[in-house]
Write the structure tokens for this entry.
Amino acid sequence: MRIINKTFVIFEGEKTPTEFYEANAKLQDAIQKLSDANRKTTLVIDFNGITMAPSSFWGTMASALRSPFIESIELVSVQSSIKLSIERFGFCTHDKVKVFPMFHTTEVEVID
Amino acid sequence: MPTVSIYSDTVSVGTFMRNYLLPIIAELPGKQQPEAEIAVIEMLENARVHGNEELPEKEITISWELSSEALVISVKDEGKGFDKIIPKLPPVTEMRGRGLLTLQDMGYDPVFNKAGNQITITIPRRSDYGRYGRMK
């Protein structure tokens, strides 16, 4: 996983659930830093071909939704199996969450 | 039945998966492997977060047996256990509560010991399983 700046997270080599599980701990830290930065932002998560996510990742998503500093979350490159989980756990109904099946370019403010 | 105890932190869980469980899971049919991997991670996370309350000094004990029919895996934590565990969909902003639901969705039928601090699942060798236990 590579954190390009404080708002854009791209999963790179984490193709297995175990790799994704381990990367999730870094994602939690990144979200904490966003909150500590004390300014509003959009969180973009690029799944980049990942097909299955452990529930700990969805817990991280939930914590991001609770953060007053994360105004929206864009989930991009979402494959159908991940979309199933997004729907199953109700994230698609939350007004902060946007889901894009393909890579979606977005305006990302570099705050580093 | 091989048994291993690990500390209750995410690094130990990841290391255990890589060194012990992934080679075992690799013996299952290829299409079944990602689901089996997720299932074991959910069991370990359940023990780490709910049973051991995220206290890294506590231990998780895992035992497993691979036969020609199935992989049977048990995960025990040091928690007090739960009387009755009925997974239900948590609110979208709730951080916990999706692990057992995921196991259930995948078609696994978790069995708990009397104390409620050990979970066992049986992963039958199947080549016709799709995501979330649906038959292809």
